[in-house]
């Protein structure tokens, strides 16, 4: 019997998040990885760090006796060369962009990162027209919207990573407070990936026990606030954005898609019109079913009155940024 072709996961942007997406994908045995990034110049010396990282990862796999292939490709900043190896990609992950720095809002990143996206998109269209695209670059809801509009792919094949990360932070802080394993905590976050995100308290539980029976209102408020500013907390501590948890969140999406696992995850997806969530022509974080075709179905989660109001505010915040982004598209 002929061996089945290994899946190909291409990661555009081999910075902190990109390289960790690559390593985790390889360690989970999800397929072969191709990394793409621009060169770095220091004085008269030109470095190609993406090739070095790929070689380092390949040697790690040899040490672990893992049979997979990882390659690095140096690309031009304007997107005019270096992307040919995207051909055959099952999934393309876009992490390329300027990282958030202390005091920088996600909106501040918008103009520069859309220009980067414009250099990348034609290459995905040309070399990987059948791929599923996962956007990580911030502000992620708006960048996912931009990628969807620029690519012209079916909506189910373009999505942004956000809700899985925010939900992981939410569960982490609940775990700290209760002294209970995150495995037994069922809680997630929807809405825009920013300060207006919406942790769903009314549906959060520990092995079926509602969170409101385990924590006081004040304790829950503290957890919600820490979740909303979880990314900023890490930026303030490290001077740059998080990368371990974001990378793992991306890999959760990759795994569900490539294994056709039919997992339900909150992801930023394009919604043409949805009456339940009261949204139209927007990318925003909602629970979706992830399988071999990308995101396959939207799940409508009942919200309390307060959560519904928070949801509307979050949607409006995303809408404002998308309207700004349209100037650059």
Describe this structure in words.
With 329 residues, the chain is α/β, with parallel strands linked by helices. It has two domains: 8-160, NAD(P)-binding Rossmann-like Domain (Rossmann fold), CATH 3.40.50.720; 163-325, Lactate dehydrogenase/glycoside hydrolase, family 4, C-terminal (L-2-Hydroxyisocaproate Dehydrogenase, Chain A, domain 2). Helices cover 40% and strands 22% of the residues. It is built from nine helices and 16 strands. A nine-stranded mixed sheet has the order 5-2-1-6-7-8-14-15-16, with helices on both faces. Helix 4 crosses helix 9 (305-325) and helix 5 runs antiparallel to helix 6. The longest helix has 21 residues, at 305-325. The N and C termini lie far apart (48 Å).
Please specify the SSE layout and strand pairing.
Elements: E1 8-12, H1 16-27, E2 32-37, E3 40-42, E4 45-47, H2 49-64, E5 70-74, E6 91-94, H3 110-127, E7 132-135, H4 140-151, E8 158-160, H5 163-178, E9 185-186, E10 189-190, E11 198-199, E12 205-206, E13 209-210, H6 217-228, H7 230-238, H8 244-258, E14 263-274, E15 279-291, E16 294-298, H9 305-325
Parallel strand pairs: 1-2, 1-6, 2-5, 6-7, 7-8
Antiparallel strand pairs: 3-4, 8-14, 9-12, 10-11, 12-13, 14-15, 15-16
Helix pairs in contact: 1-8, 3-4, 4-9, 5-6
Radius of gyration: 20 Å
Characterize the overall form: globular
Q: Summarize the main sheet.
A: 9 strands, mixed
Provide the CATH top-level class of the largest domain: Alpha Beta
Number of helices: 9
User: Looking at the chains present, what oligomeric state does this protein adopt?
Assistant: single chain
Kindly report the name of the CATH homologous superfamily of the largest domain: Lactate dehydrogenase/glycoside hydrolase, family 4, C-terminal
Question: Could you spell the SSE succession in H and E letters?
Answer: EHEEEHEEHEHEHEEEEEHHHEEEH
In spatial order, strands of the major sheet run 5-2-1-6-7-8-14-15-16
Q: What structural class do the secondary elements suggest?
A: alpha/beta
Please tell me the CATH architecture of the largest domain by its name. Answer: Alpha-Beta Complex
Q: Total domains, how many?
A: 2
Average pLDDT reading: 94
- Indicate the low-confidence ranges by residue numbers: none
Q: Please give the number of β-strands.
A: 16
In terms of DSSP E residues, the strand content is 15-25%
Q: Kindly report how far apart the N and C termini lie.
A: 48 Å
The helix fraction, in percent, is 25-40%
CATH topology term of the largest domain: L-2-Hydroxyisocaproate Dehydrogenase, Chain A, domain 2
């Amino acid at each position: 019997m002929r061996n089945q072709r290994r899946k190909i996961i291409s990661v555009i942007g081999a910075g902190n998040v990109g390289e960790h997406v690559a390593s985790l994908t390889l360690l989970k045995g999800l397929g072969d990885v191709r990394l793409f990034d621009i060169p770095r110049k220091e004085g008269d010396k030109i470095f190609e760090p993406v090739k070095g990282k790929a070689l380092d990862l390949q040697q790690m796999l040899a040490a672990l006796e893992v049979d997979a292939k990882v390659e690095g490709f140096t690309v031009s900043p304007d997107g005019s060369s270096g992307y040919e190896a995207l051909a055959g990609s099952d999934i393309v992950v876009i992490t390329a962009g300027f990282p958030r720095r202390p005091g920088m809002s996600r909106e501040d990143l918008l103009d520069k990162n859309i220009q980067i996206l414009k250099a990348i998109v034609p290459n995905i269209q040309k070399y990987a027209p059948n791929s599923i695209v996962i956007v990580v670059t911030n502000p992620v809801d708006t960048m996912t919207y931009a990628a969807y509009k620029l690519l012209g792919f079916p909506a189910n094949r373009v999505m942004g990573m956000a809700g899985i990360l925010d939900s992981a932070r939410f569960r982490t802080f609940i775990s700290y407070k209760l002294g209970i394993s995150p495995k037994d905590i069922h809680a997630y976050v929807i809405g825009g990936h920013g300060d207006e995100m919406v942790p769903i308290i009314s549906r959060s539980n520990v092995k079926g026990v509602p969170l409101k029976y385990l924590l006081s209102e004040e304790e829950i408020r503290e957890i919600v606030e820490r979740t909303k500013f979880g990314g900023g907390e890490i930026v303030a501590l490290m001077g740059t954005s998080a990368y371990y948890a974001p990378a793992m969140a991306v890999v959760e999406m990759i795994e569900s898609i490539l294994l056709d696992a039919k997992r339900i995850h909150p992801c930023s997806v394009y919604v043409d019109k949805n009456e339940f969530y009261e949204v139209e022509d927007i990318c925003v974080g909602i629970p979706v079913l992830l399988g071999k075709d990308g995101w396959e179905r939207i799940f409508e989660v009942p919200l309390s009155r307060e959560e519904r109001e928070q949801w509307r505010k979050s949607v409006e915040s995303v809408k404002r940024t998308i309207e700004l982004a349209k100037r650059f598209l």
